[in-house]
């Protein structure tokens, strides 16, 4: 047992030392996956992927893959939580056991899941026109199928498309992206290896048409001049993702219109 623990510690120490020595940006200005510092990973999204849900979407950022389902608006299940002047928004975040390299089962409702559930709920509440649907409830379920960095942003993007698919009235769609600072270089849309590099990173969510930030999280300190550069890069990433999401929404609308057929007056 002690030998196994020692092997695990040695492996962890080796990984930490390798990350410390790792060059995340080559002299040619390329990252480990071949991207430029200001490039986001390949995006892919689909809407209407869960038949039983009122709205659903899959969102992929590189190797990170998330599915979101929305139910509602419906009657509030717990009357004591009913809000007279706005919608009650609930959110549940979870990760598949097979989503990462580690196969350890995480207990439901662990601290990180609770925190991300709260972040997603608050970010979505900033976009939903909750005053239009008082005394009702909207449930958002977000499940990470595959994790390779940027899961928080992918969850927000998936939830935003799922809400749109459910026809929930919103001020604007919400797009999210993270940016970090490694090897003295601001990097956009970190993958897992970069996210594990120990540098600071900033998660941003944006209401693009309103040009308003609905989420800003930073896990460590940055000098103000560097923070402004990283934030600006993250905001530009949000705008690029928002443009892609608009294209997905437009294509989904065209498919729905085609499936419905011509309208006869």
Could you name the key traits of this structure?
265 residues; five-stranded mixed sheet; 5 helices; 34% helix
Summarize the structure.
The chain is an alpha+beta fold. It is built from five helices and nine strands.
Which SSEs are present, and which pair or pack?
Blueprint: H1 2-21, E1 43-47, E2 55-61, E3 64-75, E4 88-95, H2 111-125, E5 136-146, H3 151-165, E6 175-182, E7 185-188, H4 192-195, E8 201-207, E9 212-218, H5 224-260
Parallel strand pairs: 4-5
Antiparallel strand pairs: 1-2, 2-3, 3-5, 6-7, 6-8, 8-9
Helix pairs in contact: 2-3
Descriptive account of the structure:
The protein is built from five helices and nine strands; from the N terminus they run H-E-E-E-E-H-E-H-E-E-H-E-E-H. The chain is an alpha+beta fold. Strands 1-2-3-5-4 form a five-stranded mixed sheet. Helix 2 packs across helix 3. The radius of gyration is 20 Å and the shape is globular. About 40% of the residues are buried. The model is unreliable at about 15-20 (pLDDT under 50).
Portion in helices: 25-40%
Q: Output the number of helix runs.
A: 5
Number of strands: 9
Give Rg in angstroms: 20 Å
Amino- and carboxy-terminal Cα gap: 77 Å
| Average residue pLDDT | 88
Shape: globular
Taken as a percent bin, the fraction of beta residues is 25-35%
Please write the string of helix (H) and strand (E) elements: HEEEEHEHEEHEEH
* Physical arrangement of strands within the biggest beta sheet: 1-2-3-5-4
Q: Please state the oligomeric state of the protein chains shown.
A: single chain
Main beta-sheet annotation: 5 strands, mixed
Output the structural class: alpha+beta
